[in-house]
Amino acid sequence: MLRQYLCPGMLLAGVLLFSSPLAAEDRFLTVGGGPVADGNQISLENNVLYFQRVLSQLGLEKAEHRILFADGSNPDVDLQYENVDRDDEEIHRLMAEIVGPGQGIKFDYRSSTIPGINGEATPESIEKTLADLSHRLNSGDRVLFYFTGHGGKDHSKPAPPPKAKPEDKDKKKKEEGKSDDAEKEDAKKDVAKEEKSDSQKEEKPAKKHRTEPTYSGNITHLWYKDKMTAKDWTEKLDELPADVPFVAVMVQCYSGGFGNLIFQGGDPDKGLADHLRCGFFSTVPDRVAAGCTPNVDQAEYREYSSYFWEALSGVSRTGQSIEKPDFDQDGITSFLEAHAYTALHADTIDIPTRTSDFFLREYSTLKGEKDLSTIHTPIDQLMAGADASERAVIEGLSKRFEFSDADRGKQVEEAIRDKKGAKRKVDGDVRRKLGEISGFKRKIRDSLEKKWPEITNPWHPKTVTLLTEEPDALRTIILEHEQYPSLKKAATEVKELRQDQEALDLEIVKLERLKFWLERRARVLNLEKTADSDLVQRLHDLVKLESQSI
After folding, report:
1. 163: which DSSP letter?
2. Mean pLDDT per segment of 10 residues, for the chain of length 550 residues?
3. Can you tell me the distance from the alpha carbon of 125 to that of 131, in angstroms, rounded to the nearest whole number?
4. pTM for this structure?
């Protein structure tokens, strides 16, 4: 629970300064669960339980760990899980699949059972918990925040560029008619005016016209169908002491939008916050994430935090030992190395991202001047100055796909195009096979309806009687129907095709991750060419914050 690390000093330009060593305390906050019972899958509960085991493996079982999950300690059912004892050919399952409705037939519900839970995952509980925490934090403490739940995307679009005012048009016409001498004189006046203005006021971040959304409205779904946006969260976090580092690990869909935590009030137009905040997110802000499932078999779980926590602890969620990543060979596994390990190894549909990626998205570019770097810049130049984690991911993924050309970006783009072409073919095969399945089911359903017209209504007394008094007869008619063997065969073929789909999806996303990290390197190099030294230093400090360890 206690660790020695250096206390942050004054934040002039977001620089992490350190003074004499003090005993510092890590405090953990976990928020999770779905908005309602049928959206609160057992995997979310298991994620919290795994995180508790990780803290124990790291010797932090006695550390303060506040947990807000679903409806808290309420004994009512709030958790969905798959009933593995319900066979595919059990009569209720058959009727749901053939006659319908089939939604939810595989699932059962119970109350969540997380030891040490402190409350429900609602905005009110979160606000109260953060307020209480704020009063007890000391300089040198650190807050580690884990969100495991559902997320939503900000669908607002950037405002169109402002139209020129009539007076601006008149001014432009006058300027076009001026002589060269008059223009030079005006230019001198403008320069003098700007210099005077600069000396009288503090520099403020320029509000740029945006062609892409900021995603500051991306949301976390909370219990009782409530929600909080990235802005909402950041406004609450702004109330914590500025010199207390805050590290977020968030694994919901569209979680990358919470990269806005580094800005004042979660708004990029307000500039960087003075608070020491960084975060690691399962995927970029405009994509869904892997992970939420009612499957009770944790060996089949594939989601960001499973890889992230096993990298830090050296133990997987199923208890297997793994070699902890140490890309910089300093004997310690940092948050950044755990993130890089996940990007390199995770068999998920995610493109993991972090706060410094969001920083680069805001302050750097891949377009504009001719000498700016892109993913097509020779790989040796692109990797100049890369840190150990960047090298591990880019070199590791390049090796996976046997890429060695100087124009690594071209190889990646060509491979993505080829893989997507192959997947489109498989997608078509799946659609056709699903059409066949629908036809087989329809013929079986027609036979049932011909014998028992009432069966289309699950609430009709005759349907209830059949299910309770004649289930074997009903089941026999379905299983012995001439179309049932064809239905079973088509279902098996679809399962195999979906496995092909998944394999291609994983290949594509790992190529997209490689492209993402190449773009990051290009943006880092371009920041040094286009931004002032203050912004370059802020990036270095943010990466340093991301490179801490538990």
Report:
1. P
2. 36 33 80 97 98 97 97 97 90 93 93 97 98 93 98 81 57 51 53 47 54 93 97 96 97 98 96 97 97 94 97 97 97 98 98 98 89 97 98 98 98 98 98 97 95 93 94 93 96 97 98 98 96 96 97
3. 10
4. 0.87
